[in-house]
Amino acid sequence: MPLSDIIDRIAKEEARVGRAPGSTQLIAVSKVQPLERVVAVLEEGHRVFGENKVQEAASKWPDLKERFDGVELHLIGPLQSNKTRQAMGLFDVIHSVDRPKLASAIARIAVEEGQCPKLFIQVNTGEEPQKAGIMPADLDEFVEECRALGLPVVGLMCIPPVEEEPSLHFALLAKMAKRNGLDQLSMGMSSDFESAIAQGATHVRVGSAIFGEREYG
């Protein structure tokens, strides 16, 4: 599906639910996509992209950022503590802050480097043991910890369980964000981004619907 179709669907959903036009940012998720597909989307003028892995992003985005001005890069996958410094140098926004140890590492490196990407806290809304994210019951305390460390936390992120109605999880995330005075919500993917917009998503993460199915080697 062309990029323009996704942008159109976002605009229609914003209008349908009475949201301001352009209040949802589209993150084009380029993980595991062939370089020519990514370049094609850049050439269409899109500048906000998401990657899952630090190593993959490091192998392609420094060159692409030299070729195309104004790229904003988001890390949407889990971040290992030993990749924190590299991630903070590469990404403008990190969506997967999910544990105190990682928050402390980011805070320490931010002081050393004199800069820090914007941060989202990932919440495990489905309380799935195999999935990253802070548990809902621990969130308020974790937000306070991050603020005490001086971290620029701007919002919350979630990935709902595959077999559950996503809008319930989006509504839960919105409620938790409001309670903590956070106004940005990273939620919704190719299959459910319209439902996320209806629940207040400020960032939707769309990959295969823009680029086509991923080709895992």
What does this structure look like?
The protein is α/β, with parallel strands linked by helices and 217 residues long. It has a single domain (3-210), classed as Alanine racemase (TIM Barrel, Alpha-Beta Barrel), CATH 3.20.20.10. Helix content is 42%, strand content 16%. It contains nine helices and eight strands. The chain has an eight-stranded parallel sheet. The longest helix has 14 residues, at 3-16. It starts with a helix and ends in a 6-residue tail after the last helix. The mean pLDDT is 96.
Please tell me the overall pLDDT: 96
Number of helices: 9
Architecture (CATH level 2) name: Alpha-Beta Barrel
What's the CATH superfamily, by name? Alanine racemase
Strand content: 15-25%
Tell me the span between the first and last alpha carbons: 22 Å
Overall spatial form: globular
How much helicity do the residues have? Answer: 40-55%
SS elements, strand count: 8
CATH class: Alpha Beta
The largest sheet has its strands arranged as 7-6-5-4-3-2-1-8
CATH topology: TIM Barrel
Radius of gyration: 17 Å
The secondary structure category is alpha/beta
SSE string: HEHEHEHEHEHEHEHEH
Q: In this structure, how is the largest beta sheet organized?
A: 8 strands, parallel
Supply database-style keywords.
alpha/beta, 9 helices, eight-stranded parallel sheet, 217 residues, TIM Barrel
Q: What's the short version?
A:
The protein is built from nine helices and eight strands. It has helices spanning 3-16, 35-43, 54-67, 84-90, 100-113, 139-148, 166-179, 193-198, 208-211; strands at residues 25-29, 48-51, 72-75, 93-97, 118-122, 153-157, 184-186, 203-206.
